[in-house]
Structures are given as structure tokens and as C-alpha cells.
Amino acid sequence: MTAKNIKTKPARRTKAPGSKAPAKGKTIEIAVPESGTAAEVKKSIGQSIPGWDDLSDAEQSEVVELTRAHLKQRQPVKVTLNPKPDGGKSIGIAGKCETQGLLKLQKTFAAVSMDPVNARANELLKYLGSVGADNSDRYNAALSFIESMEPRDQAEALLLVQMYVTHDAAIRALSQLGSAEWVPTAQMYGNLATKLLRTSQGQMETLARMRRGGEQVVRHVHVDNRGGQAVIAENVHTGGKGNGKIDDQSHATGAAGIGPALLGADPFGNGVPIPSRERAEAVPYARGHESGCA
Questions:
Q1: By the 8 A CB rule, do 166 and 199 touch?
Q2: CA-CA distance, 38 to 268, in Å (whole number)?
Q3: CA pair distance 247, 267, nearest whole angstrom
Q4: Which residues contact 225 (CB under 8 A, 6 or more apart)?
């Protein structure tokens, strides 16, 4: 009897039940008058919103308030992706005024010329094309994110492009993790998603440091030898009258009298004891100060 070669297969993961294809998006156009009373605005909005009559008065007022706030926000630039005859896609400006769209695109990437705009725009287009998402909706979503962050220079614009691409790649890895049928495949996508999310967090911290600028807090610590306790001094003088020097005081006793006493036999540091029974002699005044002078 010969033994057969038995190959072990990796453990298989079962699919989650009830997975369905995502529903297609639906566009709702709301006509909002620029002027008029609150009742007139509410009536005009209600004619273009399905199910308006089913809402309560508070909900209708909330919809009106949200709609007006939306109109006050500056709308990001919109582009179209048009197929080329020789393959690939070209980027066009959507809307009636192409000049306005180009100026908005320059502001989105914090540029004053079209060269950096074309570079960043092509980087986004190449990435979206590599993952099969080179359509106008996905591209405009990326532009909306970059514009909302308001980059101050081209370095921030470059970092924001990287942030969007890294986030999108991490979400794609997580989606592959959820649909993986084999455990090794799930582990591979899980590790990839973890690295991408960690990279995305590092990019956010980098952007925060760039906008915060260099901040350095310096604390000067003075250690008291008598008590062994550190005292934090917020303001330290490096010269002048504020350095322990009094105008009427002699130069020899300026800053010399400031500081802890020398350590002696006393553990509390009360100074060096006198090694005899004789009384201490008077110390002459420094530099010819007369007796009685301060």
C-alpha cells in the first residue's frame, strides 16, 4: 500500500451573507431663491424636494437652514475627463467659463502657473487610472478634498495629493480584506492596510507641523543644593541690574552673595562651622566702603 501525497489547503473564509452591489447615486436639484421671506423660501424649496410634506415644521426649517448654508460656501472647481483618440484621458474644465475654472484650479494647488498644476493633475489621473477609477466623479472628489484643505504653498499641495492617494489605497486594501476568501490573502491585505493607514497618519502629522511652524520651549532649571529640589525659572536675566546687582552695593558683593551656602557637617547646609572657640573676626568692607554704608 503506497501512501498518497496529501496537500493541505489554507483555511478558507466564508463570505458575509447578504452582500449586494452598491446602489447608484441619485442627484437632487434644489431651487433656492436668493431673496424672499422665510415662508417663500420654504415653499420654493419644498416644490423640488420629494417627501417635503411628510416632514415636520422643525425638519423643514432645518432643511432650509442647511440649504442656505450650503449656498454660502465656495464651490470647488469641476473638471471633466474626456477620452483621447489614441488612448488615455484628457482633463477639461467643466462650466461656462474656462478662465474661472483654470484660476480655481491654480488656487486649489497653490500655484501661480499651470506647470505645477499639470504635474499634480497628471499624478492624480495616473493613480485613478491604475485602479480603474479615472472618472469625473472620483477626480472631482479628490480636487474637492485638496481645495477644502486650502494649501498655502506647493509643498502642502504636493503633500495633500499624497494624503488622498494613500487614504484611497488604504480603503481599497481594507475592502479587499473584507472580501478575501483565504486567510493568507486576508493577512496580506490586513498588513498592507495597516502600513498605509500608519503612513496616512504620519502625513497628517507632517502637515500639522508644517502649518504650526517651529516651536521650541526652553525651561531653565535651578537646583537648590540645600533641599535638593528643582525650581523652574521662567525668566532668567543674563546681565544688567536684574542680575542680583544693586546700585548702592559694591562690585565685590554683587552676585556673589546670591546662592546656597557651602555644605558642612550640618545636613541642612547651614554653612561651614568655625574650627575654634575664638570669635570670628570682622571681615573688612570690600573696596574701601566705609562703615555704616549700605
A1: yes
A2: 79
A3: 35
A4: 260, 263, 269
Cα–Cα distance between 33 and 40 in angstroms, integer?
Answer: 9
3-state secondary structure the chain: CCCCCCCCCCCECCCCCCCCCCCCCCCCCCCCCCCCCHHHHHHHHHCCCCCHHHCCHHHHHHHHHHHHHHHHCCCCCCEEEEECCCCCEEEEECCCCHHHHHHHHHHHCCCCCHHHHHHHHHHHHHHHHHCCCCCHHHHHHHHHHHHHHCCCCHHHHHHHHHHHHHHHHHHHHHHHHHHCCEHHHHHHHHHHHHHHHHHHHHHHHHHHHHHHCCCCCCCEEEEECCCCEEEEECCCCCCCCCCCCCCCCCHHHCCCCCCCCCCCCCCCCCCCCCCCCCCCCCCCCHHHCCCCCC
The 10s digit of each residue's pLDDT in 51-93 is 888 989 899 888 888 888 887 887 889 999 999 998 889 999 9
Q: What is the pTM of this model?
A: 0.59
Question: What whole-number distance in Å separates Cα of residue 197 and Cα of residue 62?
Answer: 36
